[in-house]
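Meet the record:
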Amino acid sequence: MRYLRINATPAPEGAVAPGILYNFKDTVEQGEPINFALSFKNISDVAFDSLIKVKFIITDQNNVPHVVDIPKRKALVSGDTLNVLYTINTQNLNLVGGCTLFIEFNPDNDQPEMYHYNNVLYKDFFVKADKYNPLLDVTFDGEHILNKDIVASKPQIFISLKDESKFLALKDTSLISLQVRFPDQSLHTYYFGDTMRFIPADLSSGNNTASIDFKPYFPEDGEYELIVTGKDAVGNKAGDLEYHVIFSVINKPMISNMLNYPNPFTRSTAFVFTITGSQVPQNIRIQILTITGKIVREITKDELGPLHIGRNITDFKWDGTDMYGQPLANGVYIYRVITNLNGKSLDKYNTQDNNTDKYFNKGYGKMYLMR
């Protein structure tokens, strides 16, 4: 044989090219998105004759495949490259545990190609399950109360639910439920509306906290019970037990005897008292007098600091100085409280076990300054 000629149309050849572009994080938190990127290059001298088909499948830990629709990409001429960029939403796919990513270019012999083994990529990855419980916090008018504390008949109850996840936002209203047991033992379930507002978490702030702003009205005197439950986006509960707190409502505005603590005192003393009703008096002040009746110091409401319905311990601490800031002499001083709510002074409030009257004489109390 002196001469042989073969006429043929050669097939193109492509291959995955991670050296050009590859991005994939193989261990993530539950709910964390995975940004995937991979290049495919025509490494032959022949062009692909049509758009490149891509098969993309994610298999979860239960061996259930999730087929991702990737549109066909451009037809590759010799030496050209196409890039596949896709964000895997682990939350929407409910991925947790060991999973597998599979990508195949030009699958199912969609168009002729010289070889196919180098068109495929398998990649295992792991999604760490969120097993941490969220934290539930409840305040009444900005205060954490104890069982059977007195609160306002129109309190602002603020409930926050905080989760450590940076990806699973607390944004569903069903994550927090709220009930109140009334004095007649009837159980009331509250829904979002005029008196109760849901504030979803905003992950862009870096704080995954949802909250409820609840402004009820309790017209009947007696003991109520607040019951709150919370869970995060994957169902982890805020504690094994529901949050329960019993609180008392007394609609009549009254004020208890005001005690100073410590008494006797050397450097400073604070004031302790209880207010009932639905609002704090517009005016409340403490007058400190000598035993002869001379007023040496008057403490205003603004000086006392924030006050609320229920038990108060003032931020203000009297340091034993007069109205000019001069230290007073050691000895006994008398004090009294003056209140005003809508033009009337508050009546006296006494609990059943209150035995503080022995420290007061016609509304005046005694304190001892010992430097």
Observations:
- The chain has a mean pLDDT of 92.
- Helices lie at 301-304.
- The domain at 254-369 is CATH 2.60.40.4070 (Immunoglobulin-like).
